[in-house]
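One example copied in:
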Amino acid sequence: MNSTLRITLAGVALAGASLLPGMAGAQFKNQGYLTDTQGNVVRALGAGVCVRTSDWTPARAIAECDPDLVKKPAPKAKPAAPKPKPKPKPAAKPKKPQPLNITEKIELQGMPFDKAEMTEDNKKELGKFLGALRKATKARGPVRFGAVVVTGHTDRIGSLKYNMGLSERRAVVVKDHLVKNENVDQKLIFWEGKGPKEPIPVTKFCDNKMNRKQLIECLSPNRRVTVEIVGTAENLAKPKPKPAAKPKAKPKSKP
């Protein structure tokens, strides 16, 4: 045997001695690790590490021998928890209609000259006026009185001082009638006298050159008491439906 052959056989014997028992017959294959005849990876005796071949590269690494070089499979994503179903919105409560603010006024004209008295026509007009407010209509309920303002007036005949007193007495007469005959709460009534300060516009044509009887007759509308009612009522009118939205106009095509 020549020296070259002896060195080769000695090298093979040394490699076989370093392997685990039963691994001496392992065949070399062209892959990253040395395997035995059964395809199992050969491990170095004592160290327990896999024997790599000359063809080994990090790309050939296997998890059994080089777990640090093998990419671990990404953990399976946990299925997302189902989103809770949104709670149903409570049904919108129908809006209560806002109460109506009511302000109504009547002029009780033609009171006797130089007297604080209501005529029969004055009483009928006032009763009819209040009755209409207390009666419900299609648009509103009965009016709830919040305040009743009674204002007395006179014509321009006589002194200002006298007429101021007369207008106040006329206001009181109507106030008392409201309380006694129309069941209006006295606590709601406010009264005052304005004398000749607020004449009816048409009476400006009454000329002082007229004889006294004609002038008194001409100025009759000024001898009056104004009754103003301020209150609220339930709104009975049905809300108007909202108009349907108009479709947007298509843009005109350019020529």
Q: What stands out?
A: Strands lie at 100-108, 144-152, 189-193, 225-233.
